[in-house]
Please model this.
Amino acid sequence: FLLRHNGGVPSPGGFGDAAVACLFALHDQPWDLETPGGALAQPLHQIAVDWDDAFPESALAPIGRDDRDRLICLGLRGDDRGAVFVADPDDDYAPRRVADSFAAFFGGLGG
Model:
């Protein structure tokens, strides 16, 4: 999904108590026509730079946002590698695991 649509919004996009608001753009190719314009302002590389500046020891990589303004992140190391987390700005970005893999997260999205 991320490569095919260069970010965007999956439909359906609901998970737990939230929904995917956008997945960040991975490259500078044109966006799919279904991609909301607001997400275009948040390319993955810029989010990653900002995240690394704020949390240099983090083992997470932000890949999107949900409709509650939490970051959707992938785990990068150890047992968390490939797992999906949400990081809530209202909780100092403490990560909460929501799926064991991106495939499980994406496959579990609903309405």
Remarks:
- Residues 7 and 24 are 5 Å apart (CA to CA).
- The longest strand covers residues 60-66.
